[in-house]
Specification:
The complex is a heterotrimer. In chain A, 32% of the residues lie in helices and 9% in strands. Chain A is of the alpha+beta class. Chain A has a domain of 38 residues. In chain A, a hairpin with a 2-residue loop joins strand 2 and strand 3. The longest helix of chain A has 15 residues. In chain B, the strands form three sheets. Chain B has a nine-stranded mixed sheet. Chain B has a three-stranded antiparallel sheet with strand order 5-4-15, with no helix packed on it. In chain B, strands 8-9 form a two-stranded antiparallel sheet. Chain B has three domains: 288 residues, no CATH class; 114 residues, no CATH class; 59 residues, Arc Repressor Mutant, subunit A. In chain B, a hairpin with a 5-residue loop joins strand 8 and strand 9. Chain B is of the alpha+beta class. Chain C is of the alpha/beta class. Chain C has a domain of 300 residues: Amidase signature (AS) domain (Amidase signature (AS) enzymes). Chain C has 16 helices and eleven strands. In chain C, helix 5 runs parallel beside helix 6, helix 9 crosses helix 11 and helix 9 packs across helix 12. The longest helix of chain C has 25 residues. Classes of the chains: A alpha+beta, B alpha+beta, C alpha/beta.
Chain lengths: 95, 479, 489
C-alpha cells in the first residue's frame, strides 16, 4: 500500500506529533519501507488461525475488591511541571 | 407538515458507575467527593510501568446487570484499549470492551400509554471512568483531578427502539430501578453515577431509512433529558421542513438557555484504534459461574410490584411509584415492619415524600432519614400522639435534620392535646369568644361547627386532637 | 585478586569464607566505574555515594545478624526503564529526563529484599527501541571489546557494564532481543525468560505482550542465581504466571547426554555472517562431542515473525507511549497556547526520531482501514509462529541458533538506516512473538576479536533446560578464560 503525505500527517496528528516539513520525506520513506516489508504477513498461511492477543494462556485473572491506599501521595505529583491545589494544571479546556 | 408527521427515533447509551469498593484496575477507593487527587495511586495515574488487574466484582456486577436485563452472557470476552488523548484520560487510552462485550442481546419492558413495550438492549460492557477537569475561573487554566479515573462503569447500549421523551424517561427509570435492585450501582444522578448519551433522529412516518442522528453526551437529569430531546426533535424537524439536512454531530445541551450547541472543537476525526489490551487476560466465564449469579439475583422491581398488589392491595399506580426506586421500596417495606400500616406508609411516600423529593430535586437514595423514623412517625399518628397535620411538620423536620420523631415532637412541643379536661377548657373558651357562631349553629348552620373547630386548632397551634375537639363541641353545643 | 573480575557466585564463596568484606565489593566496582566509565559510558545515573553508604550499612547489619540474605551487599546495575523509587528512571529519553518514580518495580523490590546494592541506572536505546544504544538521548555507550563499536541494544548499557566489569551483573529488558543481542555483542550471558516468568510491574512498557525483564551476567551460574531472585508470580501483573518457584542454580548440571538439539536451517542462511556461522558450527560439533543429539530442522518463520514483530511491537508502543503527554510527570514544552499544542510540541520535542517512527508505524497499523491488513494478520501470524515452535518442541529439547546475524558493528554505521537495523533482529524476535525463553552465551570471537553469541531457545518455562545446555558448553569452552574485553580505541 502506498502511503501519501496526507495520510502520514493524519497519522502523526492522531499520535499528537508534529512533523517538520523537512523531515516529512524521511518519515514517509521509512514508513513506506517498513510497511512494504511488513506486508509479508499477508502472504503467511494463516487463513484458519485464531488471533493471539498475548503470550499467556490464563483466563479470568481477577483481583479481590479490597481497598489498599497508596500513602505517598506527594510522590505522585512531584514530577508535574505545573500544578495548583493538588491538581495538574493545563491550558483551559472548554467542554 | 407538522410534528405529527414525523417519527422520533431514540437510542441510549447509559453509563452507570458500579458500587464496588475499589476501582476497576487498582485498589484505590471509589468514594465520591474526596479532595482532588487523594484517591489515586501510580496505576490510576498512569505512571510509567504500572499494570491493570481487573476487579472481580466488576465482572460479577456486569453479569448481574446483564442477567437482570435478559441479556446473553458472553463466555468469550476481553478488554480492549480505546485510544485517544484527553487530559482526564491519563493513559491516553480507556480500557473498555470493543467487539466482545460481557453481555449482549437483552431487553427491558417499559409501560407506555399503549401498554407494555420491549426495549432491546444491544450490549452491556465494562470500562473505566475518566477523571475530572475543574475549570479555574481566575488562573485561566483547567485543573486535572484523577480521583474518578478508573472508577468502574458499565455501559448499557439500547437499540433505537424509543419513540418519545416519555418512553426515554420510563426506560431510564426502569433501568435505574433494576440496577438499584440488584445492588450494582447506587445510580446517583447528581453525582454522575447514572448518566446517558442520547442519540436522536427523526424520519417521516412510513420511511424505512433512519434519519441522521445527533448525540447529546453525559446527560444526568430526567428533566434535562426530556427538554433536550424535545428541543432536538423540534430543531431537526424544522431543518428538514426547511429542506436542510441534519448534520451528524455531538451536541452539548445547555440547561440554562434550553438549547443544544455543536461541540465543534473536535477538529480531528476520531479514530480510536481499538485493540485487545495485552496487559489483561481473556474473560471466559463458565456456565456454573453465570448460573450461580442468576440463582442469587435479588427480587426485581416487576416482581416486587406484583407482591405489593397482592399482599398490600396497593393500586397499580402507587405500586409503580414505590417500586420505581429500590430505596423507596425498601423504605416502604421497612417502615411497615415498624408501624404495620402499609396504607399509611404508601400514602406518605406517594404524597408528601414524593412532593418534597420533587421540589428539592432529590434522588430517593438521598433521603436523609431512615425507615424506622418514618415508621415511628406513623405510629405516633396512629396512636393519636400527634395529628396528621403535625405529622407533615415532623416529616419536614426529618428531611431537615433526621432524628427520632418522638424527640422532635417533644422538643417542638407538638404533642397532641388529648386530655379531656384540657380539650373541654379550650372548647369552653372558644364558645365564649364566638357567640355569633354558636347562634348560627343552633339556627341550623352546620358550617359554623367547622369554624369553631378551626378556631380551636388555631388556638392550640394544631396540637389539639381533632376528633376529640369535634366530639366535645358537639356535646357542648347540643348538650 | 581483583574483586571485579569475579563472578557473583565466586564473590558469594569469598564472602562465606570471610575472605572479603561486603563493602569491599561495592568499593571495588565504584573504583572501576571511576576508571572505565568515561570510555564506556554505560550509566545514565551512577549512585556512588548512595551505594557506598548502603554497602556499609548492609555490612553492619549483616555483622549484627540482622540480615541473613545470601546476596546482601552484592551490587547490581539496573536498566533505566525499570522503575526505582526516589531515583530517576529516564528510559534514556528527554521525555523522562527528570522523572522520579513514586514506586519500585516488583523486581527492584525483590533486589531490595535481598539487600542488594544499586550501583546505578544503565543506558539504553530510548524507550528500549533500537539495537545499538545509539538512540539514547543522553549518550552513546561503547562496546568494551572495541570502543568504536556499539554494545548492541536496547540493553546496551547493561551488557557493556557487565562486560567492562563496572557491575557484577545487571538487569535488562528484552522485547525483541534487547537482552540477548547486546549480550552477544559484549561477550556476556543474557537470558530472556519465558513471558510471564518475571513480573513486568514497574518495567516501562514498550510492547506489553513481548517485554520481559531478565539477567545479564558474566556466566551461566550467575544467570541462574539472578533469575532465582527475580522470577516469580506477582499479583500486580496479570500476565505473570502463578507457579511453583524453581531453584535454577540448584538444578544446574553439566550434562547434555541425549539432549535433543534442533538446528533450524533457516536461521543459518544467507543473511548470517560467515564467521558467525563457523563459530556456531563449532559449537554444534562440541555439543555432539558432549553427547547431545543434534538434528537439522525446518522453521520457516523468521521473515513472518520479523514483520509481525514490528507490527505488534509498534502498535502496542503507540498506545503505551500515549501517557507521555506533558501533563503529569514528563517533560513539558515551554511555549503553548492550547491543549493540542501542548500535546504535540511536548511529544515532538520529548521523543527521539526512532521512537516517533515507531509510534507512527504503530498508529498506522491500528488505524481504521489498515487494522485487518496489518495488525489482525500479525496476530494470526503470531499464532502460526507459536504453532511452528510447538511442533519442534514436540520432538526436541532446545533450539540452537545464532543470536545475531553479525558481531557488533561500528558506531554510526546503521543508525540512519532503520530498516537495516530492524533486519538485524531476525534471529531474536520470533522468540518474543512466541513468548519462549532463550539465552545468549558467548561461543567465540571473530578474527577482529569481537564476541559471537549463540542463542539457545527452550519451550515455555523450561529455563532450566536452556541454562543447563548453556552451562555444559560454557564449562567445556571456558570463554571467560580465553577472551577479555580490551577497550580498543
Amino acid at each position: 500500500m502506498k502511503v501519501s503525505k496526507e495520510e502520514l500527517l493524519h497519522i502523526a496528528n492522531l499520535a499528537n506529533l508534529y512533523l517538520e516539513e523537512g523531515e516529512i520525506p524521511n518519515y514517509l520513506n521509512n514508513l513506506q519501507e517498513i510497511l512494504d516489508f511488513a506486508n509479508i504477513v499477508n502472504s503467511a498461511p494463516v487463513e484458519k488461525l485464531d488471533i493471539t492477543m498475548n503470550a499467556i494462556e490464563e483466563k479470568n485473572v481477577f483481583r479481590k475488591d479490597e481497598v489498599e491506599i497508596f500513602t505517598d501521595n506527594e510522590s505522585l505529583l512531584q514530577n508535574a511541571e505545573s500544578k495548583e491545589m493538588n491538581m495538574f494544571k493545563i491550558p483551559k479546556v472548554i467542554n | 407538515m407538522t410534528r405529527d408527521d414525523y417519527e422520533v427515533i431514540i437510542g441510549l447509551e447509559v453509563h452507570s458507575e458500579l458500587s464496588t469498593k475499589t476501582k476497576i484496575f487498582c485498589s484505590c477507593p471509589t468514594t465520591f467527593g474526596a479532595s482532588p487527587n487523594t484517591q489515586v495511586c501510580p496505576i490510576c495515574m498512569a505512571m510509567p510501568g504500572t499494570l491493570p488487574v481487573l476487579n472481580e466484582k466488576v465482572v460479577e456486577y456486569a453479569v448481574k446487570a446483564g442477567l437482570a436485563t435478559n441479556c446473553t452472557i458472553s463466555k468469550d470476552s476481553k478488554n480492549d484499549r480505546k485510544n485517544y488523548f484527553y487530559p482526564d484520560l491519563p493513559k491516553a487510552y480507556q480500557i473498555s470492551q470493543y467487539d466482545k462485550p460481557l453481555c449482549e442481546k437483552g431487553y427491558i419492558e417499559i409501560d407506555t400509554e399503549s401498554g407494555k413495550k420491549k426495549i432491546r438492549i444491544t450490549r452491556i460492557h465494562i470500562e473505566e471512568d475518566a477523571g475530572k477537569l475543574n475549570h479555574d475561573d481566575f488562573g485561566g487554566g483547567s485543573l486535572v483531578d484523577l480521583n474518578r479515573a478508573g472508577v468502574p462503569l458499565i455501559e448499557i447500549v439500547s437499540e433505537p427502539d424509543l419513540r418519545s421523551s416519555q418512553e426515554v424517561e420510563s426506560y431510564l427509570k426502569k433501568l435505574k430501578a433494576i440496577l438499584e435492585y440488584i445492588e450494582v450501582s447506587d445510580c446517583k444522578m447528581q453525582e454522575g453515577s447514572f448518566r446517558a448519551d442520547v442519540n436522536v433522529s427523526v424520519r417521516k412516518k412510513g420511511d424505512e431509512k433512519l434519519g441522521t442522528r445527533t448525540e447529546m453526551k453525559n446527560m444526568n437529569s430526567f428533566r434535562s433529558i426530556t427538554r433536550a430531546i424535545e428541543y432536538e426533535v423540534d430543531r431537526q424537524i424544522e431543518l428538514l421542513e426547511e429542506g436542510k439536512e441534519v448534520e451528524q454531530e455531538t451536541l452539548r445541551w445547555d440547561d440554562v438557555s434550553g438549547k443544544t450547541f455543536s461541540m465543534r472543537d473536535k477538529e480531528d476525526a476520531q479514530d480510536y484504534r481499538y485493540f485487545p489490551d495485552p496487559d489483561l487476560a481473556a474473560i471466559k466465564l463458565s456456565d456454573e459461574y453465570i448460573e450461580n449469579i442468576r440463582k442469587n439475583l435479588p427480587e426485581l422491581p416487576e416482581s416486587r410490584k406484583q407482591r405489593y398488589l397482592d399482599q398490600y392491595k396497593l393500586s397499580e399506580k402507587d405500586a409503580n411509584i414505590i417500586t420505581a426506586s429500590k430505596y423507596l421500596s425498601d423504605l416502604f417495606e421497612n417502615a411497615i415492619k415498624v408501624c404495620n400500616n402499609p396504607k399509611a406508609v404508601s400514602n406518605w411516600i406517594i404524597s408528601d415524600i414524593s412532593r418534597i423529593l420533587n421540589e428539592t430535586e432529590m434522588d430517593p437514595i438521598e433521603i436523609p432519614f431512615d425507615a424506622k423514623q418514618l415508621g415511628k412517625l406513623i405510629v405516633l399518628i396512629d396512636k393519636g400522639t400527634i395529628s396528621s397535620s403535625i405529622g407533615k411538620k415532623v416529616l419536614e423536620e426529618l428531611f431537615e435534620e433526621p432524628r427520632d420523631p418522638e424527640d422532635i415532637i417533644k422538643e417542638k412541643g407538638w404533642i397532641q392535646i388529648s386530655d379531656e379536661s384540657a380539650i373541654k377548657e379550650i372548647v369552653t373558651k372558644i364558645l365564649e369568644a364566638n357567640p355569633q357562631s354558636v347562634a348560627d349553629y343552633k339556627a341550623g348552620k352546620d358550617k359554623a361547627l367547622g369554624f369553631l373547630v378551626g378556631q380551636a386548632m388555631k388556638e392550640t397551634k394544631g396540637k389539639a386532637n381533632p376528633k376529640m375537639l369535634n366530639e366535645m363541641f358537639l356535646k357542648e353545643l347540643n348538650g | 585478586m581483583d574483586i571485579t573480575e569475579l563472578t557473583v557466585h565466586e564473590l558469594l564463596e569469598k564472602l562465606e569464607k570471610n575472605e572479603i568484606e561486603i563493602k569491599d565489593i561495592t568499593n571495588a566496582y565504584l573504583n572501576n566505574i571511576e576508571k572505565k566509565e568515561k570510555d564506556v559510558e554505560s550509566f545514565v545515573t551512577i549512585l556512588s555515594e548512595e551505594a557506598k553508604k548502603q554497602a556499609e550499612e548492609i555490612q553492619e547489619k549483616k555483622e549484627k545478624g540482622e540480615i541473613n540474605s545470601r546476596f546482601a551487599g552484592i551490587p547490581i546495575g539496573i536498566k533505566d526503564n525499570i522503575c526505582t523509587k526516589g531515583i530517576k528512571t529516564t528510559c534514556s529519553s528527554k521525555m523522562l529526563e527528570n522523572f522520579i518514580s513514586p514506586y519500585d518495580a516488583t523486581v527492584v523490590e525483590k533486589l531490595k529484599s535481598e539487600n542488594m546494592v544499586n550501583l546505578g541506572k544503565l543506558n539504553m536505546d530510548e524507550f528500549a527501541m533500537g539495537g545499538s544504544t545509539e538512540y539514547s538521548y543522553f549518550k552513546k555507550t561503547k562496546n568494551p571489546w572495541n570502543l568504536n563499536k556499539v554494545p548492541g541494544g536496547s540493553s546496551g548499557g547493561s551488557a557493556a557494564a557487565v562486560a567492562a566489569e563496572l557491575v557484577p551483573w545487571a538487569l535488562g529488558s528484552d522485547t525483541g532481543g534487547s537482552i540477548r543481542q547486546p549480550s552477544s555483542f559484549c561477550g556476556v550471558v543474557g537470558l530472556k525468560p519465558t513471558y510471564g516468568l518475571v513480573s513486568r510491574y514497574g518495567l516501562v512498557a514498550f510492547a506489553s505482550s513481548l517485554d520481559q525483564i531478565g539477567p545479564i551476567t558474566k556466566d551461566v551460574r550467575d544467570s541462574a542465581l539472578l533469575l532465582n531472585i527475580i522470577a516469580g508470580y506477582d499479583k500486580k501483573d496479570t500476565t505473570s504466571k502463578n507457579m511453583e518457584k524453581i531453584d535454577y542454580e540448584k538444578g544446574l548440571k553439566n550434562d547434555v547426554k541425549g539432549l535433543k538439539i534442533a538446528i533450524p536451517k533457516e536461521f543459518y542462511g544467507d543473511g548470517i555472517n560467515r564467521e558467525v556461522k563457523e563459530i556456531l558450527q563449532k559449537a554444534i560439533e562440541k555439543y555432539k562431542e558432549m553427547g547431545a543429539e543434534v538434528s537439522e530442522v525446518s522453521l520457516d518463520i523468521a521473515k513472518y515473525a520479523l514483520a509481525t514483530y514490528y507490527i505488534i511491537a509498534c502498535a502496542e508502543a503507540s498506545s503505551n507511549l500515549g501517557r507521555f503527554d506533558g501533563i503529569r510527570y514528563t517533560y513539558r514544552t515551554k511555549q503553548y497556547s492550547n491543549l493540542k499544542e501542548l500535546y504535540k510540541k511536548t511529544r515532538s520535542e520529548g521523543f527521539g526520531k526512532e521512537v516517533k517512527r515507531r509510534i507512527i508505524l504503530g498508529t498506522y497499523v491500528l488505524s481504521s482501514g489498515y487494522y485487518d491488513a496489518y495488525y489482525k494478520k500479525a496476530q494470526q501470524v503470531r499464532t502460526l509462529v507459536m504453532n511452528e515452535f510447538n511442533k519442534i518442541f514436540e520432538n526436541y529439547d532446545v533450539i540452537l541458533t545464532p543470536t545475531s546475524p553479525t558481531v557488533a558493528f561500528d558506531i554510526g554505521s546503521k543508525s540512519n538506516n532503520p530498516m537495516e537495523m530492524y533486519l538485524a533482529d531476525i534471529c531474536t524476535v520470533s522468540i518474543n512473538i512466541a513468548g519462549l525463553p532463550a539465552i545468549s552465551i558467548p561461543a567465540g570471537v571473530d578474527k577482529e576479536g569481537m564476541p559471537i553469541g549463540m542463542q539457545i531457545i527452550g519451550n515455555k518455562f523450561e529455563e532450566q533446560k536452556i541454562l543447563n545446555t548453556a552451562y555444559a558448553f560454557e564449562q567445556e569452552f571456558k570463554f571467560r578464560e580465553k577472551y577479555k574485553p580490551e577497550f580498543k580505541k
